[in-house]
Amino acid sequence: MNSAALIIIAVFTLAAALAAATLRKLMHAALSLVVVFVGIAALFFLLGAEFVGLALVFIYVGAVAVLVVFTILLTPRDVGKDRGFNWGGAIVAVAVFGGLTWSILNTQSLAVVAPHMPALTVKQIGKTLMTIYVWPLQCVGLLLTAALIGALILVMEEKR
Amino acid sequence: MTPTLQIFLIVSAALFSTGLLAALSRRHAIFILIGIEMMLAAANLNFIAFWRFGPPHQPPTGVMIALFSIAIAAAEAAVGLAMVIAVYRHYHTTNVDQLDQLRG
Amino acid sequence: MNSWIVTHLWLVPAEPFAASLAILSVSNTRRKSAAALAVAGQIIALALSVVAFVSTLQTHGFRAVQNFTWFTFGDQTLRLGFVLDPLAAAMLVMITVVGLCIFVFSVGYMAEDKNFTRFFAYLSFFSGAMLGLVIANSLLLVFIFWELVGLASYLLIGFWIERPSAAAAAKKAFITTRIGDMGFFLGVLWLYDRAGTLLFYDNGRGCLEGAGLAMLGASATFVALLIFCGAVGKSGQFPLHVWLPDAMEGPTPVSALIHAATMVAAGVFLVARVYPLFSLGAISGVTSSLTVVVWIGVTTALMAALIAIAQADIKRILAYSTVSQLGLMMVSLGVGGVAAGIMHLLAHGFFKALLFLGAGSVIHGCHGEQDIRKMGGLRRFMPVTFMTYAVGMMALSGMPFFFCGGWTKEEILHATAHWPPSHVPYYLILVGVVLTALYMTRQIIYVFFGNPRVAAERAHESPRIMTMPLIVLAFGAILLSAVLTPAWPWLHGYLTGEPTYFDVARLIQPMLFVSLALVSAGVGVGFWIYRKAGTQDGGRPAEVDPLEYAQPALFRFLANKMWIDELYARTVISFSWMAARLSDWMDRYFWDGLVRGFGAIGQLFGIFTTSVDERGINAGVDETTAGARGLGRVMSTAHSGQIQTYLGAIAIGMLALLLLYAWLA
Amino acid sequence: MSNSIDQVFVHAKQWLLSSLTGSPGWVVQVASILINIFMLLAVFLTLFALISVLERKILARMQNRYGPNRVGPFGLFQPIADGIKMLIKEDIVPARADKIVHFLAPVLIAAVAILTLGVIPYGRNMTPFTIDGGILFFFAVGSATELAVFMAGWGSNNKFSMLGAMRAIAQMFSYELPLIITALPVVMVVGSLTPDRIVAAQAGYTFDLVPRWFVFTPWGAAAFVLFFVSGLVESNRTPFDVPEGESEIVAGHMTEYSGFKYATFFMAEYIGMFAVSGLAMTLFLGGWHAPARILEIIPSYVWFFVKLGSLLFVYIWVRGTLPRTRIDQMMNFAWKFMLPMAFTCVIAAAVWHYAGRGLRGWLWSFLVIAIVYTALSTLLDTGRKLAPRVYRFAE
Predict the structure, then answer these.
(1) Hey, which of C75, C391, C407, D395 would disulfide with C484, CB 3.0 to 4.6 Å?
(2) D168 domain residue, yes or no
(3) How many separate domains does chain D show?
(4) Is this prediction's pTM over 0.80?
């Protein structure tokens, strides 16, 4: 695992995340979110979870990001207007970050390096998904169907 | 120097906090969703990291949970964005400060 | 072919049922298609019946069953089935032939009716139910079809629903037969309790076979008598015969089909079907249950024949004669002449259908008039009807040689004469035979001879479609006698499974002369008494019956059906009325008072609790709610309604938990 | 002999890398990647130039014209002239445009198109980017095209651009489903998402005659046709070029682009076409495998480019033949026909597998597809018969 690559990707991702949280234009923030997800996918690749990284890119860049930009398109009134910034939220976020970092750094059992591990193949994931996790898989399928129908009904024009 | 688990966790914590920042500080409803997506991604990063740094030759539970979480997050995003559109249609605003009909 | 018809025997009743459904589903203006459907269904059923009949000819005592499981409850399985044996096959052919004739007749008779299609739907429905009844191999299935037949009868008697008398007659028929069916159903239950099966034949395990009968033991008598209750109701035996004459309110083809040829025969058929139950443990052919059957039959036969003499309605006379003949069949079954009884049943089916259709033709010709005293001299206007009616009358009277009724009646007399316990039934039946000839002679004289009276003046012959079935049935009644003669008793052998051979010497035997003498006597006396019926004679006015003039009290007794209806009205019905009044009174004053008393107690308690509630509890609750409301007002300030506040609170809470955990660890 | 010709590029790369022995591992890795990228760009940009001029020539021949024939022999240097023209044109950015997004859109779309090329096996041992989930990578990266199109539409701040982008996204989303689902049966049958494994699974010949390509199974043939049609849509080619229909919305999301940015869009479209064709070949047409055993002496990469060339010719042929469809017809076709048929292919592949992959499986899976196809075409029949168009006012 390459430290240099990790640092580059992490800095890139976090910068994009900060941009997504603070950019004034909503569209730019949404596109920054895409960059964040590409960065996270890269981190997944770095960690050896290629399949999850590809799935993340596939779902977030291909679907969720387009949904977000479409929503921005469909709610045009507030786009581009600055609504101010709630500094209280920033304080809370910084406090949470501080608390988390403090506890992570103070937990000695976390200061481990990665063990050697055989590569996780797609086949392996598929087998696990179809054996141990077959019920969760079905439930997720049901959930996605329900979400699809629910989203459709929510945005459907009301008949008069 | 090879990275330890702590570095990944701190990256994840930073991402989580940034997501929290987006969700807490911005007024537009879509920012809240963006923040939530970032927080979920941070959680996924944690899962993957813990799997990678955990004992080898185990079922890849962390990976599985990350996959399911991605799927569920996609559903959440779809419903959430649909709600944003529905709310916009009804109140003609996406500013969450104005959506306070449930005020006590 | 053989096995095919056995496994597909259900098709026979299915055809008329299907026809019925089809007719109900077409518009009631499509009369031709309705009639065509009904007749087609009947023809197919007839063809299948003939196939079934032919297959039973192959061996003596042929019997094939086809059983299946209807449903399973717990570890019990309820099995139903169909049986094909000579009894069923003969009945199938008789019902379909007679039924077909009646269907065709109805096309002409009901041509003017506005509910033509409904009539044919009911008729087909009835036919299907009756066919199902005769091939059922399970007492339960018999019961099901039995009730369907009852329903069809109810619907058809009350067909002219706009007439109050028809509706009342339908109700009377339905309720009276239901009384008998109650006993039948109890018998079915008892039999199931004892034998554990309701199948008649099931490879030796059926309730009519050795093992099943052995399990019954002494209870067989009671079971048999309970089943006989059903037969009494359906076959119009004393004391439940009262519905049958009233059922003549239905259209005449219905009377012919249901109340002469087929349905009322169901009771006789049932007794014949479960005959092993009756004869279980017989000593020289006599059991207590069979004795009951004999005495009921004798009473019915004689009583109905007597009543028939004094009736004026052409159909009522025939109805009482039906009751009488059914009694005769019961006697035959009771004394052990099962084959004779069934043969008489088959023959009766033909000639009684013929007589009823003839009566229908007469009524049709006289424009709806049913009173024989208003007819007369019709033989000139309605020659075909007269000829066929005469054939039917001869057959019914029991004229030997050429008419089927004669041979079967003679055989019944034969069987009764040798009944060990008593000779009384034999002599009473002889009287019945004479009376039968007498009242038939009376009827024919009134209707066809003499001068035309009020209703007969503009009479006309019926159309071809109505006379054709009459002719067919008349030929059937004559030709049937060919297989009934003692010289070649083929039908007897067919039913009993014994081989038959031809012996012309057996043709001449004493009973033949007894029979001939009795019938001649009856006819002769009839001609002598009624020679001047319908005309003024001495001091007697034209409209008064000769017998009434001679014996007014006796005639009134008979004309009023021996006051049995009135007796029932005074006893059974008034008892029910009294019981109902008593129950009503109890309900109104006794139980109602109790309920009201309890109510009052509850009310008092309610008043008490209300006061406690209002004075004591409410005040406390008011204080509490006021406090809660104040607290809620304070708390609600935290509910900003803004999602980000909540989210922030969650984040702070998470942080606090983290710090708490870190502090503890 | 044939083997060394077959592997000549592989050996060349190894020879180049061998000069780096002694350097740290990551240097060699980076060098290897750079060589791959360089080769990919060199080959496919050349191919792009070649195909762009060939398309014009072929279309011209189909329409009884000459086509470009002025620059160089047979007009072959036309792309160079076009390129110079594009480069020196003024780069116009609308004043109200979202400048960053407007700039990033062509970059993203080109990057995505080139990335998808990376996972396709071009010959024996010639896959630039070997990854376990190559097919998934292709679709995952390819799905970013929609985002780029949206960025172009949004960034231009022009209603034609926005409308074109909406149309493009609608049709790409709709046809991405059949595209991915028709790839599924192959993945199911091979049991791998790796392109190399999929190509390897199609090696060999039935009866030494018919190659074991998936296109020769009923489900494979049906899936190939569906995949090809979806590919046409994904690369916005005629008859599905609704998003940039000139007569309706100028040039769709590319309306506000000029000069080199426009050229980049153009290039991305062609490279996307190459990539989809390459994937179609990998999945169904046996990749770089020769169509007969005798022809195996010809190197694998030659076969790949021969097949690619024929597929591209079909693209051009279709463009020269068919008129543009209406957007509603396209959407109906996607959801009512393509998607059910794609699922049918999955089922038919399963049937083929469980019926023994032999003649029996062939017949059964053919039956499944035939039944569903017949049912669908009966159900979707609008009853409108095709007839010559009647010009009421023109005659």
Answers:
(1) C407
(2) yes
(3) 1
(4) no
